[in-house]
Amino acid sequence: MSPSISLTINGEARAVALDDPRVTLLDLLRERLDLPGTKKGCDRGQCGACTVLVDGRRVNSCLTLAATLDGAEITTIEGLALGEELHPVQAAFIENDAFQCGYCTPGQIMSAVGLISEGSAGDDPERIREGMSGNICRCAAYHGITIAVQEATRNMIRTDKEDAA
Amino acid sequence: MTLHRPESLDEALSLLGGGAVVLAGGTDVYPGLRDGPPPSRMVDLTRVAGLRGISLRDGLWRIGAATTWTDVLRAELPACFAGLKGAAREVGSVQIQNTGTVAGNICNASPAADGVPALMALDAQVEVAGPEGPRRVALEQFIRGPRNVDLRPSEIVSAVLVPEATGQGAFRKLGARKYLVISIAMVAAVVEVSGNAISRARVSVGSCSPVAVRLRGLEEALTGATVAEVPGIVAGADLPGLTPIDDVRASAAYRREAVRTLIARTITDAMEVRDVT
Ligand SMILES: Cc1cc2nc3c(=O)[nH]c(=O)nc-3n(C[C@H](O)[C@H](O)[C@H](O)COP(=O)(O)OP(=O)(O)OC[C@H]3O[C@@H](n4cnc5c(N)ncnc54)[C@H](O)[C@@H]3O)c2cc1C
Ligand code: FES
Ligand code: FES
Question: What is the mean pLDDT of residues B94-121?
Fold first, then answer.
């Protein structure tokens, strides 16, 4: 059986035929949909490199079967920037040297976007470290990552307030 | 392999048997899926109507089988659930908590399942749905051994049930690092205090026996204890239910020693009402 699903990926509606119902969202994105920004580290939920947003919640795409996502809205690292304008989390990562090799970075950034929208950590560094603990960094850029997430959180709250005013 | 996504409990039940694998969040199922031949059929429960969410009826809290750890953390629950919330916050990472379910955690029946001691301390029962209608079994009986639960191939867990109770819950997990770690030992407690002494304590320990256990002897010994007396009582207690082993995470001797400190601290947390959310 080859199920077919419809997804919205980074705002674009796509119909996808799945030849194998075991295909993960991660493999679908990278190998079928030409979206290799999402990285594969461990392929078993332990590193967070594959983090994407599904209906606004962060999940490990390596632990998500594409076939269970019919009708879902997916956001990947490729969908964050507005044209040439970086997302505030992307900008804060660059500003604060929050990476070294960069392999974990798409997952870190997607996880941070999820964390900020959950709204439970604020700019408390200990809560940010806990909330980001599903994203391992082999280069140990954790210090910069925490500062970048703090800064992005403050910038996004400020922008929200200005928008509301 | 065929993946089914039923929308009703009856439809889900009709798809069971014949080697079908039940799927909730998949955080335990998927990593294993890559290591062997695929099952003939998988039945995803996440779309079944009425299986997700937490509600209170007739003195029983009902945690539907598709309820995630994040759902538990966000739910408004009484203080006795603080230990379950503490466990929810320490299952894997937020990414895992967003998809992993409470029911999946108990059905997977790992000795290191963080939800199990937390639910045992709450006297949880398991509601099982099957062709002969629903049945209930105490969580302590439901988990028979590692990876072994009281479920027939034609049955699924439809909910975890927790009797309404007073008291304050707490949970502590000991791991080799602070986050995203499998437990070396974990302790859950629900403690009722009157005046400044314990009137009733429920204490459960995981990762120190094939299945998490309630420490009923200790619970009795703690009745009447003040905060200051707790460490002494725990240090001197006979804990026959705990039979830790050496494994990759820790030695039996380390577990035996560390767990007493963990127990005393968890009970003290509950008496001093640490905010866990
Ligand atoms: C990186 C990582 C870290 C983890 N860390 C922790 C941790 O710190 N602590 C911890 O306790 N666990 C941890 N886990 C394990 C897992 O995430 C939890 O056990 C989770 O609660 C499982 O829920 P699930 O919905 O994903 O289960 P699934 O994988 O969907 O199912 C688990 C098992 O239960 C069966 N099942 C599920 N629902 C039902 C049902 N309603 N009726 C009958 N059978 C059912 C399935 O067939 C399967 O055998 C971790 C997993 C990963 C990948
Ligand atoms: S690749 Fe998904 S968590 Fe590591
Ligand atoms: S920057 Fe290299 S793994 Fe994080």
Answer: 97
Residue at which a domain ends, from A21, A47, A79 = A79
Is the predicted pLDDT of residue B272 greater than 50, yes or no? Answer: yes
Structural domain boundaries in chain B: 168-272
Does residue A122 share a domain with residue A68?
Answer: no
Among the partner residues A1, A60, A70, nearest to B2 by beta-carbon distance: A1
Last residue in a domain, options A55, A79, A103: A79
Residue-wise pLDDT tens digits, B230-261: 999 999 999 999 999 999 899 999 999 999 99
pLDDT at A21: 85
pLDDT of residue A160: 83
Number of domains in chain A: 2
Q: What are A89-144's pLDDT values in tens digits? A: 999 999 999 999 999 999 999 999 999 999 999 999 999 999 999 999 999 999 99
Q: What is the 3-state secondary structure (H, E, C) of chain B?
A: CEEECCCCHHHHHHCCCCCCEEECCCCCHHHHHCCCCCCCEEEECCCCCCCCCEEEECCEEEEECCCEHHHHHHCCCCHHHHHHHHHHHHCCCHHHHHHCEHHHHHHHCCCCCCHHHHHHCCCCEEEEECCCCCEEEEHHHHEEECCEECCCCCCEEEEEEEECCCCEEEEEEECCCCCCCCCCEEEEEEEEEECCEEEEEEEEEECCCCCCEECHHHHHHHCCCEHHHHHHHHHHCCCCCCCCCCCCCCCHHHHHHHHHHHHHHHHHHHHHCCCCC
> Which CATH superfamily is B168-272 part of?
CO dehydrogenase flavoprotein, C-terminal domain (3.30.390.50)
A→B interface, C-beta within 8 Å: 1, 3, 20-22, 24, 43-46, 48, 51, 57-60, 62-65, 67-68, 70, 111, 114-115, 118, 129-131, 133-136
Kindly determine whether residue A45 and residue B178, on different chains, have CB atoms separated by under 8 Å: no
Report residues whose beta carbon is within 6 angstroms of any ligand 3 atom: A 99-105, 137-139, 141
Nearest CA in chain A to B29: A63
